[in-house]
Design a protein that fits this description.
230 residues; alpha/beta; UDP N-Acetylglucosamine Acyltransferase, domain 1; 2 domains; 10-stranded parallel beta sheet; 8-stranded mixed beta sheet; 29% strand; disordered C terminus
Length: 230
């Protein structure tokens, strides 16, 4: 195996600059003058471009709709958003290309400061809380609900939804193509390995991998204990 080349992190070390006042005023004016459906139509109009005006308009539309939108939000092309009115977005958030964040009209989606969400991720954000400084790998997914499956004489898709709060705490990292199932908590500073299927809580500062995911160690070098299996 070739040795790793060590370079400085970029996103995690950047200082977030306040957005200019005109952007905030523009977003406020949009919210006063236009219905949410019209603002989302404007978002879609600028959703594929990579010029300054495209990034500006995507960010302004989200700020006009969201419960909160911090400075420095970067939304890459092809992002899909549903029920932005339930979103609370911190400072310095990056949402990668073709990410889908699907909220619910009566739900909660909290994305903390300096969160980086990789391309083609899917966030079922009916009741989702992501802390500060979280890395979310490309293609990683979280499910926030499941069908009850009852009664059995109707199609599963027609049975009631069970919505559970799913949490990724500060400083955690979710690997490429990992999947978090409804109701789990990934503890502070934990690492979820690439392709892992997380069915139970992940302890703080642990490393979890596999399908279903199990604790394979801790970031301070401790070995995983048998009872720590997820």
């Amino acid at each position: 195996m070739n040795p790793a080349r060590v370079v400085k992190a970029v996103h995690g070390r950047e200082t977030v600059q306040p957005d200019p006042a005109f952007e905030i005023e523009f977003a406020q004016d949009l919210a006063r003058r236009h219905a949410p459906s019209e603002i989302m139509a404007l978002f879609r109009r600028f959703n594929q471009g990579e010029e300054y005006i495209d990034f500006l308009m995507r960010r302004t539309c989200v700020r006009a709709l969201a419960r909160r939108c911090g400075s420095g939000l970067r939304i890459e092309p092809g992002v899909g958003l549903r029920h932005v009115e339930t979103f609370e977005i911190g400072d310095g958030v990056v949402i990668g290309e073709q990410v889908m964040i699907h909220g619910r009209f009566d739900g909660t989606c909290v994305i903390g400061d300096k969160v980086w969400i990789g391309a083609q991720a899917f966030l079922d954000a009916r009741h989702l809380v992501i802390g500060d400084n979280v890395g979310w790998g490309p293609g990683a997914k979280v499910l926030g609900s499941k069908h009850s499956g009852l009664p059995i004489n109707v199609p599963i898709i027609a049975t009631d939804l069970l919505i559970q709060r799913t949490v990724v705490e500060d400083d955690a990292d979710v690997g490429v193509n990992a999947v978090l199932l409804p109701g789990v908590t990934v503890g502070r500073g934990a690492i979820v390995g690439a392709g892992a299927i997380v069915t139970r809580d992940v302890p703080a500062f642990s490393k979890a991998a596999g399908c279903p995911a199990q604790v394979i160690g801790y970031r301070d070098g401790r070995n995983a204990l048998t009872e720590a299996a997820l």
